[in-house]
Model the fold of this input.
Amino acid sequence: DGGITQSPKYLFRKEGQNVTLSCEQNLNHDAMYWYRQDPGQGLRLIYYSQIVNDFQKGDIAEGYSVSREKKESFPLTVTSAQKNPTAFYLCASSTDREETQYFGPGTRLLVL
Amino acid sequence: QKEVEQNSGPLSVPEGAIASLNCTYSDRVSQSFFWYRQYSGKSPELIMSIYSNGDKEDGRFTAQLNKASQYVSLLIRDSQPSDSATYLCAVKMNTGFQKLVFGTGTRLLVSP
Done:
């Protein structure tokens, strides 16, 4: 089955700790995205990548980092600099030509 | 003014009724519009996209776009309790890549 997978489903972070969220897709999509969703708010763009080895900051990139070493993978690291990381993190992908973005199942990050 | 605005609801309709969800946007040159459905605790799933003025129908769903008035709506005919979810409107902004800006969503409740 083609799709987008995210792991883990739930992630707990201790203060001062960096954590990495995984996102993998086998749709052969060129572009990948990371969003953050807080209760009562819309999705906010953290980072995006249009091609391998290239990525750009979105609207709320501070405290986050990404890499895009493979077309299929776009991991997100939530660093200790992100002071309010509790949120639902969503990874999405799209083709180069088609504008529609498709979402993975999400990772819920909680702070201990 | 927010870039994409939706009434947060909840919008309550009885089973079998028509649910009407509305969205306004600020960027006059936006060309692409999307409706996503998000069940509680889950990731958004695409319902429809619309690019031209007028109506676009897909089963029980109809998207309506009026670029002159800068609004897009989603009609759900014969509403079912399983349609109870939050509906997100997303608009592609006039940037160099496929940046989608999401509204905060309208919560729909369909009562049996």
Chain A touches chain B at residues 31, 40-43, 45, 48, 50, 56, 90, 94, 99-106 (CB under 8 Å). Chain A is about 0% helix and 50% strand. The mean pLDDT of chain A is 93.
